[in-house]
Amino acid sequence: MTSRKTSPVHVTRPLLPPLEEFIPYLEQIWESKWLTNNGPFHEQFERALCDYLGVKYISLFANGTLALVTALQALRVTGEVITTPYSFVATAHSLLWNGIKPVFVDIDPNTLNLDPGKIEAAITPQTTAIMPVHCYGRPCDVMRIQEIADNYRLKVIYDSAHAFGVQFQGESVLNHGDLSVLSFHATKVFNTFEGGAIVCQDAKTKRHIDHLKNFGFVDEVTVVASGINGKMSEINAAFGMLQLKGIDEALLQRRAIDSRYRAGLAGVGGIECLGTGCEEMTNHAYFPIMVRPDYPLSRDVLYQTLRDNGIYARRYFYPLISDFPMYRGMPSAAHSNLPVARKASEQVICLPIYPGLANEQVDFVIGLIAGCRRSKVDAMPCVRRSASTAAAPSR
Ligand SMILES: *Cc1c(COP(=O)(O)O)cnc(C)c1O
């Protein structure tokens, strides 16, 4: 195994265009002095995104979390909402911000998305909606989820924070459900520094959402709801216009890195690359591997070994949302209710993947993971080092 150190490699690195290309956009904003509140770039960016993504209506937001909170308000969701524990904490937090009780349902072991087979058992008279997540950009079982929603008259709001540009059966996956919510945070496939959006299916709903993100104002003197300030500024919208020019190339680069990892890790016993056989169904926002029990190191020892070698992979999603203090007392958060999610959160590591990640860096990561497997037999330095860090207090 090579012990060559590289400069730190993080799980992601934001897509950024050359700075000089952004200057003309800034000049236009300075010229117009229109900084926010539905300015020209905001309008352009909404149209451009609808075209690029293949959706009908989009409302831009300052971030994905405000978009989730507003999506629930727009559909007047109350009571209980069925959701996944295997996600970023904002998914469930958006429910608490609306005084809604999250009900956690376990995930499918193959896709790590909400398991449709387990949804019905969690429905009560208080249930009004389902909030699934297209985890790692892989589509949920949208057909079965819609069937259940129709049978029980439930709304469906997809947390699509990972699903920018993902297609399902020839069209945007964002067209499923009543609403789909995107995040354009710096760590996502497509970023506007901070940003988010709600995708909806009709003009009336978009109008309502646009009121809600602007304090509830419908005109100068009329406020119809206790809306919030969720607006995206002109700077972020202008930046989004520029980012759209580079997104196709960025997605291609992600795909190539995904293939390289899969080829390199294919023969490594105990390491399973998620989504093998359906690589085309995602935007390669993440590259999750499962560290199975037949790999010689535990997930956490491998995670630490990667860190010791400058590879800052992440354990998305560990801990489960249902393990955080504000959720763990809920009946649906019980360990016995979520065995698949728990196992996934104990085995997953997301490896670095981003446009600009060099082949030799990918190979270095593969070499470390494969080398640790071999070194179990050969007693190479990797295991000695990782054994000592495993005994040290965690950072
Ligand atoms: C990033 C993310 C969010 C939150 O989006 P922000 O734009 O950071 O507020 C919500 N849900 C999931 C699944 C995410 O990954």
> Which series of helices and strands comes N to C?
EHHEHEHEEHEEEEEHEEHEEHEHEHH
User: What's the pLDDT, averaged over the residues?
Assistant: 93
The total count of strands amounts to 16
The CATH topology label of the largest domain is Aspartate Aminotransferase, domain 2
Residue share in β-strands:
5-15%
Helix content: 25-40%
- How many domain regions? 2
Largest pleated sheet: 7 strands, mixed
Radius of gyration of CA atoms, rounded to a whole number:
22 Å
**CATH second-level architecture of the largest domain:** 3-Layer(aba) Sandwich
Q: Based on helices, strands and strand pairing, what is the structural class?
A: alpha/beta
Layout of SSEs?
Blueprint: E1 9-10, H1 19-32, H2 40-53, E2 57-61, H3 64-74, E3 80-83, H4 90-96, E4 101-104, E5 127-131, H5 142-152, E6 155-159, E7 167-168, E8 171-172, E9 179-183, E10 196-200, H6 203-212, E11 217-219, E12 222-223, H7 234-265, E13 271-273, E14 287-291, H8 299-308, E15 311-312, H9 339-347, E16 348-351, H10 359-378, H11 381-391
Helix pairs in contact: 1-7, 2-7, 3-4, 3-6, 7-10, 8-11
The chain binds pyridoxal-5'-phosphate.
